[in-house]
Amino acid sequence: MQRNSKEFDPLLLGGVYDRCESGCQPRTDTWSDMCKADPDELSTINVCERSQRQSILEVADVVSSGAISAFSPCELHSFLGNRTLWLVGDSHTKNTFTALRCFMLDFWDHSQGECQASSIALLQQQLEKAALRGHIYNTPPRCLHLIGGGRICLVHSPMGTTLLNDDPYDPGTLQLLHSFFAAAHDIFYISFGRWHSNNCDGVDASYADALEALGGYLQDQRPTFPNVFFAAPLHDHTSCTNGAFNDSLGYCLPATEGGYPLEFGKTLQRAARDILTVKYGVPLISSYQASLMLHDGHVLPRQTIAGRVDCLHYCRPGMPEIEIWTMAQTFAAHNISRGVMLPSPPVYSHWPSPAATAAAAATAM
User: Fold this and answer.
1) What digits encode the pLDDT tens for the residues 173-226?
2) 111-120 long-range Cβ contacts below 8 angstroms, 24+ apart
3) N or C, which end of the chain has less CB nearby within 10 Å?
4) Phi, psi torsion values for 292, nearest 5 degrees
5) In sequence order, which residues have a C-beta less than 8 Å from that of residue 102 and are 6 or more positions away?
């Protein structure tokens, strides 16, 4: 059964745009336009082609045992309330922020748009400078202010080795956030790994070093920094031939056919678990198994600026949204208390019952 009709889209996998019935933000502005996820309009990059939708829906159903179809923005907002969710990491984290911006489309004021992480210009500049260490891809720190309180903020800091710095006069990204930006009840989603590894060369020793430094810091600061989660890197399906990258195929191969040891990806997961979770008690958010299955869930040439397949990053709605679901389940499993709810939250049309779904599919045949 091909589920291409919008009536089958779970809220998390693109359904929010069409299924809001009341309390909705406008659907005529640029912010909403970027969340249409229509591959033919090319209004935003990294959108999944229609041919990719079936496998993404199937993997989402498998990893969630079907629960992802009922997951709503209201449920995620109940964790956030008047807190800030800080997303700190690499380009995969940027994609997760974009997915959150669209999933929570009706929970922030579009006329306000994205805001700076601090109203104090000097602090904003210092955070941007710290996040830029070791790379040139500047994405200034930014936040969405949620209606009713709370924020979702992105800090693009892709290298784990730059989160902390021994120089007290030049603190790392995480130290700045902890000291000058975050409240004790805020939630942190931290992710790195892809700047410390690749499929052709393996995992650099700097990855384990960065995990060890992060775990030690969080252990020392736990009384004022309790809600920190680490998101393990997703699988990279970039192919290798004779130890060198091979992007000439025009599509992404299954992990077992990519010409690289699967052990590399497992090493990233195992190190995060053994160092952060086992040694330091930092909870792990892992969507790795889902990403391992989604070799056909990456960004295809028509949806990239470069016009070529990208087997490292995933299209949306797809893997970034599955990561959001995994994140929320991890919050629940670790007893993150529910925040303040809106008195009148947005209302969305219900996901069709199995009987209605089967009837609609039979009618379409």
Assistant:
1) 999 999 999 999 999 999 999 999 999 999 999 999 999 999 999 999 998 888
2) 112/145, 113/31, 114/142, 114/143, 114/144, 115/142, 115/143, 115/144, 115/145, 116/140, 116/141, 116/142, 116/143, 117/141, 117/142, 117/143, 117/153, 117/155, 117/181, 118/180, 118/181
3) C
4) -60, -35
5) 16, 17, 34, 35, 37, 316, 317
Alpha carbon distance 137, 71 (integer Å): 33
Residue 346 near residue 22 (C-beta atoms within 8 A): yes
- 263-271 helix and 205-221 helix, angle to the nearest 10 degrees: 20
pLDDT for the residue 363: 45
Q: Enter the tokens of residue 41.
A: 């309009």
Predicted TM-score (pTM) of this structure: 0.92
Q: In this structure, is the dihedral angle defined by the CA atoms of residues 21, 23, 29 and 31, taken in order, positive or negative?
A: negative
Tokens for 27? 């659907």
Place of tokens 């379409």: 364
51 exposure class (CB count in 10 Å sphere: 0-12, 13-18, 19+)? exposed
Could you tell me the CA-to-CA distances from 234 to 83, 265, 304 in Å, in that order?
Answer: 26, 8, 19
Confidence of residue 8 (pLDDT cuts 50, 70, 90): low
